[in-house]
TrEMBL record:
<keyword id="KW-0378">Hydrolase</keyword>
<dbReference type="InterPro" id="IPR000801">
    <property type="entry name" value="Esterase-like"/>
</dbReference>
<dbReference type="Pfam" id="PF00756">
    <property type="entry name" value="Esterase"/>
</dbReference>
<comment type="similarity">
    <text>Belongs to the esterase D family.</text>
</comment>
<dbReference type="InterPro" id="IPR029058">
    <property type="entry name" value="AB_hydrolase_fold"/>
</dbReference>
<dbReference type="InterPro" id="IPR052558">
    <property type="entry name" value="Siderophore_Hydrolase_D"/>
</dbReference>
<dbReference type="GO" id="GO:0016787">
    <property type="term" value="F:hydrolase activity"/>
</dbReference>
<protein>
    <submittedName>
        <fullName>Alpha/beta hydrolase</fullName>
    </submittedName>
</protein>
């Protein structure tokens, strides 16, 4: 057997920073990808992403694979800012529930015995951190094109992306809400949507991409048919209605001035398998050479 030496596998041109906010609460883990070359004159386009632990590796490799052939992919290089948590796993369920849930939020039983109650409703504070602390910090480390900033989120993160659009619509130019949990807490997001509809701000046009997987419709994935939890899944689908709610949200937004909104249904994908597909779509939209991606 040939000899080999094990070394850590690193994410190319990416650094990790545990960022404690000014008010001193628990830190967020920031994964920062900056291309290893001089920035263009206008600065780098930037893609901000929630659930950073789960998406950073995919996002960076998507850019590496496609940006080297922009004539065939329409993808250029850019800065990626993936916001996660100082944990070993892909998610911190307790903290993300608070950070990504629109206010006012509710209190739920613990995920596990002996752990704290689950609280939602902290999306306003999380968005303020991104705008007031994280964006200036990123700008101190890379030249940024402030007119080309995008926000991606999946599931609860997709709900957060919509909340951010409705409450701070000038913060980003491109918004990608993948499998957004629009149903959450009796569609609490609707009151923010209605305020946004009543006063769409003047400014550059925004591009909004909503999406869902084929098996987030009324259909079950083939491997779910006949499983022990088949009936429970079918009942859950009647509540979440991910594809229906995302599609109608896109139609509603597309009717507004200065908003380009679309809905995409991804074949053969479930709520979780859609993650890398939509990370790819986020990179294509955020780092498009021509057009909005």
């Amino acid at each position: 057997m040939p000899k080999s030496m094990a070394t850590p596998a690193l994410i190319a041109d990416t650094t990790v920073h545990d960022f404690t906010p000014a008010h001193g609460d628990d830190p967020w883990r920031i994964f920062l990808h900056v291309p290893a070359k001089p920035a263009p004159d206008a600065g780098w386009p930037v893609l901000y992403m929630t659930d950073g632990n789960a998406v950073i590796g995919t996002a960076v490799d998507v850019v590496r694979a496609q940006a080297s052939y922009p004539a065939g992919t329409n993808v250029c290089e850019g800065v990626i800012v993936a916001i996660g948590y100082p944990v070993e796993g892909a998610y911190d369920p307790l903290r993300r529930s608070w950070d990504l849930g629109p206010p006012p939020g509710k209190i739920y039983p613990p995920f596990y015995d002996g752990t704290p109650d689950v609280r939602t409703g902290g999306a306003g504070e999380f968005l303020a951190f991104i705008e007031d602390e994280l964006k200036p910090w990123v700008a101190s480390r890379a030249r940024i094109d402030e007119s080309r900033q995008a926000l991606y989120g999946h599931s609860f993160g997709g709900l957060f992306a919509l909340y951010a659009l409705f409450t701070r619509p000038l913060s980003f130019r491109t918004w990608i809400a993948a499998s957004p949990a629009i149903y959450w807490e009796d569609r609490a997001i609707d009151r923010f949507l209605e305020a946004f509809e009543a006063a769409v701000p003047a400014g550059p046009a925004v591009n909004v991409i909503l999406s869902a997987g084929e098996y987030e419709t009324e259909k079950l994935a083939p491997f779910q048919i006949g499983a022990e939890d088949e009936e429970k899944r079918l009942q859950q689908k009647q509540m979440t209605r991910t594809d229906e709610f995302a599609r109608t949200m896109a139609e509603r937004l597309a009717a507004l001035p200065g908003v380009s909104a679309s809905f995409e249904l991804h074949a053969s994908e479930t709520h979780m398998s859609i993650l890398p597909v939509t990370v790819n779509r986020a990179v294509q939209a955020a780092f498009a050479v021509r057009g909005s991606g």
